[in-house]
Write a structure and sequence with these properties.
Elements (H helix, E strand, L loop, with lengths): L6 H54 L9 H17 L2 E6 L4 E4 L13 H8 L4 E5 L8 E11 L5 E12 L1 H51 L15 H49 L8 H29 L8 E4 H11 L1 H6 L3 E5 L6 E4 L1 H18 L5 E9 L2 E9 L32 H11 L4 E6 L2 E9 L8
Parallel strand pairs: 7-9
Antiparallel strand pairs: 1-2, 1-5, 3-4, 4-5, 6-8, 9-10, 10-12, 11-12
Helix pairs in contact: 1-2, 1-4, 4-5, 5-6, 6-10, 7-9, 9-10
Length: 485
């Protein structure tokens, strides 16, 4: 029974219920209005006929206290003619409610006594109309009664009797039955159309949701290739499907990066650990001669430090990815940060026999950002430039102000980086020289950290490499930028 509680059945039931309720209300309203109108029309018709007959009776001046004479016979002929033309029977009573004339052959020769509610109302001068059997018929009939007046000696008028116009209710019943039949067929047709339309609409709306549920289950099983098929409809369900596919693409990319990251970590950790284990076992089992133990212990020490740097860099990457640097933005002098990095790098630059060309303004240049993180960006870029620069060349560290941005340039002279290699420089564990074993100090995370920090600051970095000159240029927003407030 659970399947009948889904969105499809709820929407289907809601639509069906609304259609049925609408038809019920419309049918009831229409039936009530029609019934009221028909009854009003039938009442007016009978009252008019009864009044006409009352006027004719006055004209013929029938005797209300004696049997029919020639005038009474004439009135009887007229009443029967009117009854045959209109399917209406007439009953005429005198003031003592004695039947004087009837056009209904089934009542001839019978003693007829009217109900008090009818006789008293008409004889008091009112008009009666309603459905009743008058106490003389086996079925109800529609009856209208009017009083008959005559002139008195004093010039006034008095009620001499009454005229009742009587007709069958069968015509009303037949009309109502016809109406119910038409209404029933119309209702069934509308309901079927509504059910089909509701079913199709509900299926179209629930299909993407079911596909999302199935895709989510496949995601849980490790299959990130599942997608929801879009149909190009411009509605909320289509928007949800597109958002789901975008999320699936992001999850697939994240999963791919995670696997690549694990593979890279495994590769990077494997080399120093293998070296450390191999040389340590060689010393312990005597494979390595004692006179060379110090040399291999130094290698073990270097690999241990390299392994330690790798672990620290990975922890640093993890910290940066979870850090919201935008919250710690403040104004600081980037010129001072550049000078501080030059001082800390002095020994490494000197050891590699490099010169430095620093083009840093004397006046402070205030930018918005995290001072410590941007200092690390400059340090990583300068360290990377020193590592790949040819001995005897100069490193360039320059600051330019362009509009609302400050541009920091770090430049060296060495091997030209191939254009297809430039986009991969900022990937984790990537090394442009393709020689991981020769670069013992690097772990391939320095430029990735640079990219991560600048992305958190919503800044840009670009790389150019031509004729052996490689430049890294990144931007910083000046503290005077009104858009940052």
């Amino acid at each position: 029974m659970k399947r009948f509680h889904g969105i499809y059945w709820r929407q289907f039931g809601l639509t069906a219920g609304m259609v049925l309720l609408t038809l019920l209300l419309l049918g009831t309203s229409f039936f009530t209005l029609t019934y009221t109108y028909m009854m009003s029309e039938k009442k007016d018709e009978l009252v008019d006929k009864a009044k006409l007959m009352a006027e004719l009776d006055t004209t013929y001046n029938s005797s209300y206290d004696a049997a029919f004479g020639s005038e009474g016979l004439g009135m009887q002929i007229v009443a029967r003619a009117a009854a045959s033309l209109s399917d209406i029977d007439f009953l005429i009573w005198n003031s003592r409610t004695n039947t004087l004339l009837t056009t209904d052959a089934s009542l001839e020769g019978k003693a007829i006594t009217l109900p008090k509610k009818v006789s008293e109302k008409v004889m008091s001068g009112d008009i009666y109309s309603g459905i009743t059997d008058l106490g003389i018929y086996d079925t109800n009939k529609y009856v209208a009664g009017v009083p008959v007046y005559s002139d008195t000696v004093g010039g006034g008028q008095q009620i001499r009797g009454m005229v009742l116009a009587i007709t069958e209710t069968q015509s009303l019943t037949e009309m109502w039955r016809a109406f119910l039949g038409i209404f029933g067929m119309t209702s069934i047709t509308v309901i079927l159309i509504a059910f089909v339309a509701s079913s199709v609409t509900a299926m179209q709306q629930t299909k993407p949701i079911k596909e999302m549920a199935a895709a989510t289950r496949r995601f849980a099983e490790g299959n990130f290739d599942a997608r929801v098929q879009t149909t190009g409809r411009d509605d909320e369900v289509e928007e949800l499907a597109e958002a789901f596919n975008a999320m699936a693409d992001s999850l697939q990319q994240t999963e791919r990066q995670r696997r690549e990251f694990i593979a890279n970590i495994s590769h990077e950790l494997k080399t120093p650990m293998t070296t450390i284990t191999g040389y340590a076992e060689g010393i312990l089992d005597g494979t390595i001669p004692r006179e060379k133990e110090e040399q291999y212990l130094r290698i073990i020490s270097d690999e241990s430090r390299r392994l330690s740097r790798l672990v620290r860099r990975m922890l640093e990457v993890s910290r940066l990815q979870s850090l919201d640097s935008l919250r710690s933005k403040s104004s600081f002098d980037i010129c001072e940060s550049m000078r501080r990095v030059l001082v800390s790098m002095e020994k490494k630059i000197t050891d590699r026999q490099l010169d430095v060309e620093a083009d840093i303004p004397e006046e402070p240049v205030l930018v918005l950002g995290d001072n410590d993180l941007i200092t690390q960006v400059i340090y990583n870029l300068l360290e990377n430039a020193a590592k790949f620069a040819r001995s005897g060349t100069a490193l360039v560290l320059r600051l330019d102000v362009r509009g609302e941005k400050a541009e920091v340039t770090v430049q060296n002279q060495g091997e030209t980086i191939a254009p297809e290699e430039i986009p991969r420089l900022f990937e984790r564990f990537h090394k442009a020289d393709k020689s991981r074993s020769e670069d013992k100090d690097g772990v391939g995370l320095g430029l990735y950290i640079v990219k991560t920090i600048l992305e958190q600051h919503r800044e840009q970095i670009r790389v150019t490499s031509e004729k052996g000159v490689t430049s890294f240029i990144f931007t910083m927003t000046l503290a005077g930028d009104k858009n940052q407030h």
